[in-house]
Amino acid sequence: MQKMESDSFSRYHPLLNFFYFGVVLLFTMFNQHPVFLGISYAGAVFYAALLNGWRRTLRQSLLLTLPGLLVVALLNPMFNHYGVTMLYYVESSGNWITLEALVYGVVLGAVMFVVIQWFSCYNQVMTTDKFVYLFGRIIPALSLVLSMALRFVPRFLNQLGVIRNGQKAMGRDVSERRLLDRIKYGLQMLSILVTWSLENAIETSDSMRSRGYGLRGRTAFSVYRFTKRDCCLGTLMAGLFAVFTAGCASGAAYAVYDPRIVLAGFTVQGSTAPVSVTPWLAGATYLCFGIFCFLPVMLELYESRKLKQSRKKTGTDIGMTYRQIYEELEQEGKIL
Amino acid sequence: MNIVEIHDFCFAHPDCSSKVLDQVNMEIQEGTLNVICGRSGCGKSTLLRHFKSVLMPHGVSSGTVLFKGEKLAEVDHRTQSQEIGFVMQNPDNQIVTDKVWHELAFGLESLGYDNETIRLRVAEMASYFGIHQWFYKGVEELSGGQKQLLNLAAIMAMHPSLLILDEPTSQLDPIAASDFLETVKKINRDIGTTVIITEHRLQDIIPYADKVFVLDKGTVFLEGRPSEIGQKLREQKHGMFLSMPVPMQIYGETDSSAACPLTVSEGRQWLAEYFHTKGISRELQQKANDRFLAEKTAQQKEQQPSSGREPAIEMKDVWFRYEKDSPDVVRDLSLQVGKGEFYALVGGNGTGKSTTLSLLSRVRQPYRGRIRLEGRDIRTYKDRELYCGCLGVMPQNPQSIFLKKTVLEDLYSVIGGKKEKLSPEYQVHMKKEKAIEGIVSLTRLEGLLDRHPYDLSGGEQQRLALAKVLLLRPRILLMDEPTKGMDAEYKEEIGRILNKLKQHGLTIFMISHDVEFVAEYADRVGLFFEGNVVTSQNTREFFAGNNFYTTAANRMARQLFPDAVTGKDVITCLRNSN
Amino acid sequence: MLTEQQLDTFMEEFWEDRHPEHAADTKEEQPEEPEEYRLPTDGLIIRQMTKEGRVSRRTWFALGVMLLVVPLLLYLSVRVFHGRKYLVCSLIVIVAAMLPFFMMFEGRKPKAREIMVIAVLAAIGVAGRAAFFMVPSFKPVAAIVILSGISFGGEAGFLVGCLIMMLSNMFMGQGPWTPWQMFAFGMIGFLAGILFQKGILKARKRDLCIYGFLSVFLIYGGIMNPASALMSYGQVTWASLLAFYISGAPVDLVHAISTVIFLWFLSRPMLEKLERIKKKYGLVEP
């Protein structure tokens, strides 16, 4: 579960991580403008590729998620019959398949698709540690429950293995041929686990109380510190966020599919969006959102370049010293 | 100054008429290391739990416990949490959170320290205990010894003035255990924290104790410096000797007037001195040893009349690894255990002993090589055949096979319930009731049948697990560290049961860290190293031949009686030479 | 206690299966059912610990707040977004619906042992799924949630349900479905607790199984089907809802039936174990 935090963005403060995903996910779900979705998708795919590698990302999204969502998207016009552009008449139900419903179905499918892509990044970046930390301040008791449960799950799974071996050695294995036996032995294993865990947990709660749990004024310690670096990134993110929120609020991402397709910034079937956003603001909105979506990828590139540079520098330094040593040795040799 | 004082303390469990603690009087001086010892069930743990209010068991108590001159009941929760640290037996159960750093900070969080202070304290502790390498790890990745060290560090982070340890090493392997005790000593020495400890590995801690309390039947029976305890126990001829370090045991059987030896090296010196004063010559020693050896060999011959027994377990060129590209855990292992033999496999941690056991119990399968049980390939057995009536496997943790809510029901559950009919698990024409009676009698579980399995003590739980396994009538018994965390008495009881089983022709295969137990009961011993059995010899020859991997008694007396392996052997030899 | 000699003969007979002559009558039928399996005549596994009808005021308060907040948010979302943006709004609503319970739990400073029990039950729920890896789509989660609700009250049931889904998604990957699942299982546990404390749901095998079936089929299915409709269409129409209910029915049915099986076999041992823990460690003051 706990991966190495491989990319630079996940090494920033958890608050920033969480804020980032919150904003990206909300905006993706909120906006149904195709350009917006496209940018968001590109950002998500690049980031996912950075985290999981290209092959896994593409395989996952193209082979597993896409087909399902395509089906779902194409089914939309079967249920919905709004819209003005009739495409095909279904005789059995007496309804028209409309272009608007079809497009809207695709857009909705795409929203889901992008959201799932973002979540695949989220699962990598927001480790349980960060989650527990973030909520440790707001809901301390529950976050402690969570932290304890996170400790128990691997422990119980391990114990389950021990129990299974023990039961197997008494001739009761869950890989038994009969389904009924499997269920019976599975239930027995669960039963043993329940007793074991409950009885042993009492000592854990003793240990908690013995270390002063329940005293007034409990604090929440964290290993995360809000450094200057986090501060810079936070300001940048907030700035970008402000710009594209303002843009969206004034309609830069306006999109309606019922009864007609109306998109901000496009002329579809002769109609334009009834929004008063200036092209400047619209452009800035898309640019800022784009930067925002690609922020982790850019950070990673920037930091790896810096690292390489600094390595080169130190590398040459060491080379120099070696040469100096050699020269000195040579001189000494000459003297000798 | 006394940090803890106990006056006339009595305690009884709620529905129990007899007192667990009876008129206990104790004074613990600040900055000292105190060991409390006593037979199991003498009330050690109950006493320790009364040193901290939140851990007090339910029940009726009388008398006073003073902490720094104040009544403990009146010391508030905050002060107690901070000042009194308590480490319990099971390393796993005490860990609350999922990360090492969080665990270290847990107590400080409760006390309400701010982030900066906690960071400092945690850093300090991590460096002192050498935890910084695994600071960010999840606790499930740690070994047992590391976990217990973490528990200790988490408590020390709160800067307690009194540290209480209740059998802290009972779940650890010997090396981790002595490391842990070393740390405890270091804390006492460097920081001056007062330590109260109960331990069953007394040889590692008693020599360093400032004061030893011997508890018997709920009352302090003896107290004093360790060497005084040895002398006093000898005067009283008390059974407590059994659990004392071996040098003390041997000393107790002589009439020496010198100070009681505590460690092996002191024991050696004392023994040499003793021989000198007694005027026992070298030849006499030699004779005693020879006589002893002859007796033992004769006994052995008598016990095992047929030397060329047919093998019950046979492993031939067995190889095993967990993953396709991981290193081999078991390498080219060949091994033979004869029918009716008690074979013990010893060796360090992580050398593959447990894996070998899982191969023998067919939980895992080797990728090369052959395992035969009673002459038949293990793969050809059906599950029922193998596990019901042929192979019995005792898991290391007995709790992992407890199913029902009373001991009796749990026993019946093994043989398919109380209904008198033959089932795949139960193929004997004996009434189940009678079978259970017999097994209960064999494993000495009488009087415990209505208890909940989890309310039994460690040794009793082990015997219940053994009873469950035996109800399936195994002819080969595999055991994984059956004496882990047990004190001398429980070990003796298990040893007696195993001897009985052996007499009735059961083959016993055991892996163990407990050298003393192996020396006492096993017929043959194999040393396991790097996935292979390095040597496999008769017990006596094995231990007499080893320099390091041998019993404390042998290390102490090897120059005089090279073939005496256990404390009892040394004592016999001493008698012989007198 | 057998003497040494008796023990020897016993061991010989037992291991060798050598039965002496007088043991010929072992096959004698034993008509009466062994006591171990007998339940009290009314089939109640555990009696009500507290007086009938006493659900803590806190729990009602949480429910009240939830019932107040949710329609308000729904109304607001309709007013502000004119019935669009279903996905976002519904997510917000569902999170808001869970908040009162969390806040109540925080507000009363739970004791170490309560925290422990909830954490252990949640972890068992997650780990329990692994115990049945051999039997596909047969998971004990709902049964554990229901039994926790009955044994420790509606609030604990809700939290255990929520946490199980939260945790298993932490291991298997979060997604927009997480809040819905959390809420659905939370409600199952919550209702079980409330109904039991009100005396409507009795701790009887049959009753529990019926509740288990209905709750999984109606509550879990009832919440998750519209949720998946929402997630894939971003809006709910009657037609799509119906389609999702129909297509989801078989899965829900298997889920419900497996819950029934679990409750049938697990309810008695589990409830007894939980009762023992409660008593042994003083979680309930008599």
From TrEMBL, chain C:
Pfam families: ECF-ribofla_trS. InterPro entries: ECF_substrate-spec-like (IPR009825). The keyword Membrane applies. The keyword Chloroplast does not apply. The chain crosses the membrane at residues 59-78, 85-103, 115-135, 142-167, 179-196, 208-230, 242-266. Keywords: Membrane, Transmembrane, Transmembrane helix. This is ECF transporter S component. It comes from Blautia intestinihominis. The lineage of its organism: Bacteria, Bacillati, Bacillota, Clostridia, Lachnospirales.
